[in-house]
Specification:
Length: 120
């Protein structure tokens, strides 16, 4: 009898657990990037981006430094630049997925890599 009551209780809670786990929050997608470095390998060199949990970012390359705010919208990460870099829209939005340290991926013809710690 105790087993069936426990089973009924768990079944009753299952939809709520699924609802809580189903939407992926900004923090779930971006959590591995906090305190780590996202490298962007482009034709002119490599840029570094540092995402923070407060939805701000900083970064740069050998030419300029950047900063701004980030937001997840419709499966994309949108960077709202404080000062828009040349040849970039503001905001700049690209597909976003969860990644772990060591992952390498390509979005929009640019190669990305997630490395441990703050790399300069």
């Amino acid at each position: 009898m105790r087993i069936s009551i426990l089973a009924v209780s768990l079944l009753a809670l299952a939809p709520f657990a699924a609802m809580a786990a189903d939407p992926v929050s900004d923090d779930d997608i971006m959590a591995t990037r906090y305190g780590n470095t996202t490298l962007v390998h482009e034709t002119l060199g490599t840029s570094h981006i540092y995402y923070k949990q407060d939805h701000t970012f900083t970064g740069g390359n050998w030419i300029l430094d950047v900063s701004g705010k980030w937001k997840i919208e419709n499966g994309q990460i949108c960077l709202y630049w404080d000062k828009t870099p040349p040849m970039h829209p503001n905001p700049e939005c690209d597909k976003v997925e969860k990644h772990v340290i060591g992952d390498k991926w390509n979005v929009g013809g640019r190669d990305f890599e997630l490395v441990k710690g703050i790399a300069k």
